[in-house]
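> call design_seq(struct)
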């Protein structure tokens, strides 16, 4: 027991910044702010969080509402896919030095006005999330069955493992922002921490290495863009 305590103390002293919520289990039922209005009363935009978005008038929008250091790697995927397909995008990003998990608002309760407006002007969306697991797995949820089919097929083709989401990560609620679209359906991807770490060289998602993407990252973007391009033909 003493050895365990010493090891934990050593980790906390020498790696304080990396022990943020990108490494923790975050579910749709986890505690946090109940609304954006509540969050902005405490947290300061530009200091604790930032919002990046662009409405490109596309049928598909790409969202990462737990981006930055909240669920590490989701912003990077959103940015990469939006750039590749020239899609509209929205990212709510934690930029605190630590404890970014406090910025987590569940997908059902996420009511930041820019995000909801962009969602409601898009035919459908893909919403990117992270959960904590050492398994290399991606849960594919949401209400858009055709888009989900194309994504599962493409991810499998490019060497990724997909599974049906566990109960708390299904993303099927109509109030979930992923389904607050013109079609009332979207795709919610829950990407394990093991997969997200592999998006960066040497499995290092620290601030100093976050710009160094791995070949796995680009393969993941290739898969999502292939699926999105095939799905767009049905819109």
């Amino acid at each position: 027991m003493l050895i365990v305590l010493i090891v934990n103390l050593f980790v906390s002293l020498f790696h304080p910044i990396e022990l943020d919520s990108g490494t923790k289990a975050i579910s749709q039922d986890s505690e946090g702010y109940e609304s954006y209005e509540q969050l902005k009363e405490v947290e300061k935009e530009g200091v604790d969080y930032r919002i990046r978005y662009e409405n490109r008038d596309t049928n598909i929008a790409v969202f990462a509402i737990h981006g930055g250091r909240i669920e590490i790697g989701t912003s990077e995927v959103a940015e990469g896919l939006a750039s590749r397909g020239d899609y509209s995008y929205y990212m709510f990003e934690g930029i605190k030095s630590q404890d970014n998990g406090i910025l987590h608002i569940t997908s059902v309760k996420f009511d930041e006005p820019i995000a909801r407006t962009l969602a409601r002007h898009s035919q459908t969306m893909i919403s990117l999330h992270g959960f904590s697991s050492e398994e290399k797995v991606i849960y594919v949820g949401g209400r858009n069955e055709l888009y989900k089919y194309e994504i599962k097929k493409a991810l499998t083709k490019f060497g990724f493992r997909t599974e049906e989401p566990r109960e708390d990560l299904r993303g099927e609620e109509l109030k979930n922002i992923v389904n607050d679209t013109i079609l009332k359906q979207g795709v919610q991807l829950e990407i394990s921490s093991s997969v997200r770490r592999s998006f960066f060289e040497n499995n290092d998602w620290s601030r100093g290495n976050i710009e160094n993407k791995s070949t796995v990252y680009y393969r993941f973007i290739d898969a999502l863009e292939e699926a999105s391009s095939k799905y767009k033909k049905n819109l």
